[in-house]
Design brief:
The complex is a heterodimer of chains A (303) and B (329). With 303 residues, chain A is an all-alpha fold. Chain A folds into 2 domains: 1-63; 67-302, Orthogonal Bundle (MetI-like fold). In chain A, 79% of the residues lie in helices and 2% in strands. In chain A, helix 3 (85-116) runs antiparallel to helix 8 (200-228) and helix 10 (256-263) packs antiparallel against helix 11 (269-302). The two termini of chain B are 48 Å apart. Chain B has helices at residues 2-44, 47-50, 79-110, 113-128, 131-157, 173-197, 201-209, 214-243, 246-249, 270-281, 288-328; strands spanning 54-55, 62-65, 68-71, 75-76. Residues 321-329 of chain B have low confidence and may be disordered. Chain B is mainly α and 329 residues long. Chain B contains 11 helices and 4 strands, in the order ααββββααααααααα. Chain B has a two-stranded antiparallel sheet. A two-stranded antiparallel ribbon of chain B has the order 2-3. Chain B is flat and about 80 Å long. In chain B, helix 3 (79-110) packs antiparallel against helix 8. Chain B has 2 domains: 2-75, no CATH class; 79-328, MetI-like fold, CATH 1.10.3720.10. The chains are: A mainly alpha (303), B mainly alpha (329). Chains A and B meet through helix 1, helix 3, helix 4, helix 5 and helix 6 of A and helix 1, helix 3, helix 4, helix 5 and helix 6 of B.
Chain lengths: 303, 329
């Protein structure tokens, strides 16, 4: 009697053990399959990125010459010749102008949000509106710039209209990164400054802004990098010109992204070449700004 | 002392005014689009949302409808562009969201720390590449690749699925969806990775001690904890895809007056069409063409703003709830 019970129990035990082992095997297999799938996802993302960078780097490096920097684009109905000096200088002008508008506004706004009224009703409204501004599609922003600045105010296609439209795009980004960097400054810094009898203005300019500077600069560099690659805001505000910019109002300016957008669709081989070189220059500019921002972050982490 | 008080007050007001310019900006954007879009809203009415015919009738004569000037025979229907925007973004999410979550899981859970740092840098770099570069790469590399290597075999082998059997085109919905997916994967992956990393270590260790495999820990501990932020990040990506202009304009096929019937057919999105059409719009002396384009802009603005507000609420919620759990543990 007792022997049969023992045997039954043994049977059941080994049966269960086998089942558990089979299940464990299956679970380990699923684990491996999922791991392989996530690696494939990473490859699916990085392969196009690396292909893109290498292709533009190779084509750009073989096509680039001093003419690109020394001559403006000569565009007529039959051919496209010359270099990209007008587009390069136009891009730099647009970036400089839009930074000159958006950096003071954004940094000061960020100071208000972080230092003066972190929980105020106006601050909440500004944050909400900045989030909405950041989400306005770039072409919609470009249309608003066209209708209000170019047509209603009568600025015409111009560097200032393009730069102001771009700065509306950069502003929320700089605002929020400034606020975030200031918030990350330890509260004890502020208390120490106040305890030494410092005024609020002094405390902000000498203590908190200084401590938050690497973070703020990173935000500014990254927003400049994003702005330099934008096209849709500028198409109908900056227009396009084959000459170097001469005036801020009533005179259209060229820029690199326009060259990529329009010349890539023209059928002359020389226009394709200019579009490829412009892509290469844009990529090089954006990547070097990103690297600079990253180095700043690392310096900040070291303290 | 009094002087420093004055300086403080001055700084406070200057800072408030600078921050307050955001209100002026949004007011001007909304104001101009509403003013310029109003004639089209009144004249075209609801058929703007339901008709696929976009015919500015530039040779028509000037007439007045409901008090606004337009051209006789002009007919504006935006359904092609609205559909193209929604469908291409949906395709981008279908392709991009699972890939991005896979990338995020790899970066936060499976990868060794050093590899994860390098890949994270590359992922963030992808997010910073100009959209026109994505579009140009799509035109030069992706479109020919899809046309000759992928679409013919998809069309032949998956003929039994809806939308997959049919003529292949050089550029269209499929190419747009893939380019958009590439652009939004870094956004979704970066936010999801941060949310997954916030999940407390104690819970993972507890699960591992119970004998769960790596994936089971992710499935039962990490993903449920990070699900709000992941959902929010997908919506943020969707918002980006809906409003994307330059990447799509070169690979969409610029369809007009026709809806896509297969996955390869040419499409057009609101943003891409807006970028292509403003030049010809100014040849319309009545101004109705411009107004109709601005109404499209308003529709796009409405969709992207709603998506983004929802997304930011979810992301914020997701991060706050998980950080509270860190405190509680």
């Amino acid at each position: 009697m007792s022997e049969t019970v023992e045997a039954l129990w043994q049977d059941d035990f080994s049966y269960r053990r086998k089942r558990i082992q089979a299940r464990l095997l299956r679970r380990r297999w699923i684990d491996r399959v999922i791991k392989v799938l996530t690696v494939l996802a990473v490859i699916a993302l990085l392969y196009p990125l690396i292909d893109m960078i290498l292709m533009f780097a190779y084509k750009g490096a073989t096509l680039i010459s001093t003419t690109i920097f020394t001559q403006v684009t000569a565009l007529n109905s039959a051919t496209v010749t010359g270099g990209l000096q007008n587009a390069i200088s136009g891009t730099l002008l647009l970036i400089a102008l839009s930074s000159a508008i958006s950096v003071p506004l954004g940094v000061m706004g960020g100071i208000y949000l972080a230092e003066f009224s972190p929980r105020g009703r106006l601050s909440g409204l500004i944050r909400f509106v900045a989030d909405i501004l950041a989400a306005v599609p770039s072409i919609v922003l470009g249309y608003a710039g066209l209708l209000f600045l170019v047509l209603y105010l009568g600025w015409g296609f111009s560097a200032l209209a393009g730069a102001l439209t771009l700065s509306v795009f950069m502003f929320p980004y700089i605002l929020r990164t400034t606020e975030l960097s200031l918030k990350n400054v330890p509260q004890s810094y502020r208390e120490a400054a106040m305890a030494l009898g410092s005024s609020k203005t002094n405390m902000i300019s000498r203590v908190t802004l200084r401590a938050a500077l690497p973070g703020i600069s990173t935000g500014i560099i990254l927003s400049t990098s994003i702005a330099s690659g934008e096209t849709a805001q500028l198409l109908y505000t900056a227009g396009y010109s084959g000459f170097n910019p001469t005036a801020l109002l009533h005179s259209p300016v060229g820029y690199l992204t326009y060259v990529v957008y329009v010349f890539s669709q023209l059928s002359f081989p020389t226009s394709q070449n200019l579009a490829l070189v412009a892509s290469f220059l844009l990529l090089a500019f954006v990547i070097s700004l990103n690297v600079a921002a990253r180095l700043l972050v690392r310096r900040m982490a070291k303290g | 002392m009094r002087q420093s008080k004055k300086a403080d007050a001055l700084l406070r007001y200057t800072a408030a005014v600078c921050g307050g310019t955001s209100l002026i900006f949004i007011f001007l954007i909304l104001g101009t689009t509403l003013v310029y879009g109003f004639p089209s809203i009144v004249v075209n009415g609801l058929k703007f949302l339901t008709s696929i015919t976009w015919n500015p009738a530039l040779s028509g004569s000037l007439i007045t409808v409901h008090g606004f000037k337009t051209l006789s025979g002009a007919h504006y229907g935006g359904l092609v562009f609205i559909t193209g925007t929604l469908v291409s973004s949906a395709l981008a999410i279908i392709i991009g969201a699972p890939t991005a979550i896979g990338v995020a899981i790899f970066l936060s859970e499976f990868s060794p720390k050093s590899l994860s740092t390098i890949i994270s840098i590359l992922v963030e770099l992808t997010a910073g590449i100009p959209s026109i570069i994505f579009g140009y790469w799509g035109l030069l590399v992706l479109v020919p690749f899809l046309l000759y290597n992928i679409e013919p075999s998809l069309s032949q082998k998956l003929w039994f699925l809806p939308f997959f059997h049919g003529q292949v085109y050089s550029s269209g919905l499929f190419a747009s969806g893939i380019i958009l997916a590439l652009m939004i994967i870094p956004i979704i992956a970066a936010i999801s990775r941060d949310a997954m990393r916030q999940v407390p270590l104690e819970q993972r260790e507890g699960a591992k001690a119970l004998g769960l495999t790596h994936w089971e820990v992710v499935k039962s501990i990490v993903l449920p904890n990070a699900k709000m932020a992941i959902a929010g990040s997908i919506l943020l990506g969707l918002g980006r895809a809906l409003g994307e202009t330059m990447a799509v304009v070169l690979v969409s096929g610029s369809a007009i007056n026709t809806l896509p019937h297969t996955a390869y057919a040419p499409i057009n999105t609101i943003a891409a069409f807006m970028a292509q059409s403003m030049d010809s719009a100014f040849t319309d002396p009545s101004g109705m063409y411009v107004s109709a384009l601005v109404e499209l802009a308003l529709i796009l603005l409405l969709i992207t703003t709603a998506t983004n507000i929802l997304a930011r609420l979810l992301v914020r919620e997701g991060f706050i709830s998980s950080s509270e759990k860190v405190v509680r543990v």
